[in-house]
Amino acid sequence: IFSALDKDVDAEDHGKGQRSPKLCGTNYPVSIAFIVVNEFCERFSYYGMKAVLTLYFIHYLHWDKNLSTAVYHAFSSLCYFTPLLGAVIADSWLGKFRTVIYLSIVYVIGHVVKSVGAIPDVGDSTVHVVLSMLGLVLIAFGTGGIKPCVAAFGGDQFDEEHVKERRKFFSIFYMSINAGSVLSTIITPILRGDVKCFGGDCYALAFGVPAALMVIALVVFIAGSGLYKKSPPEGNVLVRVCKCIGFAIRNRWNNSKKSPKRSHWLDWAEEKYPKRLIQEIKMVFRVLVLYIPLPMFWALFDQQGSRWTLQATRMNMDFVMGVCFCVVKMLNALLILVFIPIFDMGVYPLIGLCRIKLTPLKKMAAGMILAALAFCAATVVEINVIKSVVEPPPAKESLVQVYNLMDSEVTVQFPGHTVFSDPLKSYEDPSGYTSLPLTGESQLYTVTVTHNGAEYQCGLTFTERTAYSLFLHTAQPGDTVCKLVKDHITKSETGAAIFDFCSVPRGEYNGVVCKTNSDQYLIDLGLLDFGAFYTVILSKVGDRVQFLMEDIQANNIHIAWQVPQYVFITAGEVMFSITGLEFSYSQAPASMKSVLQAGWLMTVAFGNVIVLIVAEGAGMEQWTEFLLFAGLLVAVSIIFSIMAYFYTYVDPDQLDKIFREDTDDEKVESSDGKKNEAVSLTDMPKQTKM
């Protein structure tokens, strides 16, 4: 690593990096092959780790669903805040090449620490949490720091005149991201679930393989060192920008009444700072203002790894037409690989034939609408999914269902309530839970049970927010006819069936051996389905020795119903994300390309912050939350469209030409004693609005 850095330090510092040869007679540099492969391996590493992260929090660290969702999005948010740090280091100090190498080393260390934290034999639960959080922080700084550098570094490999090839590169670059995501989403869940280590799911291996891929990514990137075109860092760009802005504000405040008005408030910095720097800051500001509404798109998009995953665990994951949980989880990345060529070679040209000019900002606005439609589809799915879910009772309420195991009908009376007014038939499956009001956190009820004219009194204590099953059976001398059992009504997060409080895989269970103190039975349970909760009662009545109850209904909505929402969100991603990536590069001046890439990535970070605020603060039902996000994104897309209408595209590559001509004019005009006018954005070559 360090020999490669020593070899290229002079070339990078002086902008004399070897110019890469072209691929097979095209205008694509050979060097981009190393960058694309590096990105594939790095994305495999990142998404492979994230594919099992939510389940790791729930099943290994034993966090609840809301905490797991919050930490997941906090980590995702940090991964997209740190690009600003990487961009400043690259553009101001180390250059993009060395920044990628140094932060990739931090990235690898984070993966190793995370993998060690997933080994059960290493310390106690506190050690596991500490190592896991430390590893995630290092990964966030590593992946976030290199994000803006790799994309911008790839764009730097192209000559100025090869704009079309550079635009295609960003599509290829994005395809490599999703190719890595597809494979990692398949492989890491298999490593976690199918490979057993330390007596359970092998999270250590599931995190260790992504660490190995990150090492490969680093090696591949270094291997292309001699082919890269390296631009030297421009000095401390961020500091110069901040000083220029500060001086403009102070100068305007102090001299606004003495001096004539200027066309732009940044023009007040002309007395101290170069006109070129001022124009570059104006360009960046105009783009950053457009970024303000964009986090809402990412607030929806990143819920694929949290809310949509948890929705899938409450659905039927049986194999139907080749569709299963693992396929749906990687569907977004898989569809990206299909949709990119379809949109580039089919959709966009067809729209062009209709004489509709589809500019980058129009594509992004359309992508927002498609993402909103995805969440409308998710809302419809959620409404149907929750029909098989038993909602936990609120404060001062319990849930109760009654099993009549006697030989004839019985009546049950709760004093002061008519919750079970009709007689209960023998061995009839209860219709469901009934709400039982309480006077406080708990309450003692004296329940009257009437069977064949005889009355029995049962003293039963119910606790709020709890579900119970009340079993009525034939009394033995000195025994009661009532047995109250606390129930588990929360569906398994893995989608497994629950049988007498034990999680079991879905399947047919026949010939199950059941032993009592005096007898042994072979019982046929039949199909134990996804997400259901079963109670088996052994009661010998005639030839029958069992009674299987389905307390919680099985997941009856197939996971294939999530496919439409993934189609919409992926189509939106193609139009929004790929376009935004290339737009951020094309509208940025050369000295600030990484900084503007970081600004683009920070919209993802703020999107995750929005999810944290809504998920933790709103306290609403999941389907209403989905609908809220969809409505917000539609509103934001309208605002963005209005802002985009007034945006005028510029060509930053023309800055050199403009200021070179401006310098020549100054020389001529200085001989005549004339003052040269400031160059403004109106002097820049433009394209159409929106």
From TrEMBL:
Transmembrane segments: 44-63, 69-88, 100-120, 126-150, 171-191, 203-223, 283-300, 320-343, 364-386, 563-583, 595-615, 627-650
Record SUPFAM superfamilies: MFS general substrate transporter
Domain of life: Eukaryota
Record's GO cellular component terms: membrane
Keywords of this entry: Membrane, Peptide transport, Protein transport, Symport, Transmembrane, Transmembrane helix, Transport
Recorded topology in the membrane: Multi-pass membrane protein
Intracellular or extracellular location(s): Membrane
Annotated region described as Disordered, given as residue ranges: 662-690
Pfam families reported in the protein's UniProt record: PTR2
Compositionally biased residues, Basic and acidic residues: 668-677
Leader peptide range in chain numbering: none
GO biological process entries: protein transport
Record keyword Membrane present: yes
Family: Belongs to the major facilitator superfamily. Proton-dependent oligopeptide transporter (POT/PTR) (TC 2.A.17) family.
Protein name per the record: Solute carrier family 15 member 2
Organism: Cyprinus carpio (Common carp)
